[in-house]
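Hi support team,

I submitted a single chain yesterday and got back a structure, but I'm not sure I'm reading the token output correctly. Could someone confirm the output below corresponds to the sequence I sent? I've pasted both exactly as they appear in my results page.

Thanks,
R.
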Amino acid sequence: MNIGMIGSGNMGSAIGKLWARQGHQVMFSYSRDLKKLDAIAESAGSNARTGTTAEAARFGEVIMLTVQYAVLEDALKAVGSLEGKVLITCVSGLRPDFQGQTLGLPTELTSSVAEQIAQLAPGAKVVEAFNLTFAELLQADSRQFGTERPSLPYCGDDADAKAITAGLIEECGYDAIDAGGLIKARSIEALASIWVQTAVVTGLFPNTGLKILRR
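Hi R., thanks for writing in. Yes, this is the structure output for that exact sequence:
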């Protein structure tokens, strides 16, 4: 599968490297430091390359969006049309100081970053995923906690896009959990805010993961 990475910071580089090592063709893009971008692609192996934001968008059957919220609109303008593309987002509205979110979440559950992205990228099949884990865990040799894999909820409105996303989540070493339609991103983003703050306050950050238990 061809995957275009829009955003190549800690999250984007870690996820893209995992997918490249699973055999997917990955194009990294959207970095102010082109030398750093080249280094990321080189470390990801022979299945990785770099390109402009627009090139990555054209290249990918799946687009992974990992930019900071402050540059979201700029990034999507540079991308161009994403009509018909699977667009996975982990973009967070969480402020750098972890004190709440730019959208007023979690107390005002009237919107989400993922729903904003769906409006800014008409025709894209938007799926929210990867915002309930840490880049450090993605960068580690394994996502395992003993015999357990951490859970990773995802949500979206397109069944095929969700199935593709679930497979990509599993390939990264997580237990993919279908949380429902894209409107559920409001709850997932609120949970992400609580999760990050809890992990930091308790000193568990970043070597911790969420697990949804079944019986």
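A quick pointer for reading it: Residues 2-202 form a domain with the Rossmann fold fold (CATH 3.40.50.720). Let us know if anything else looks off.

Best,
Support desk
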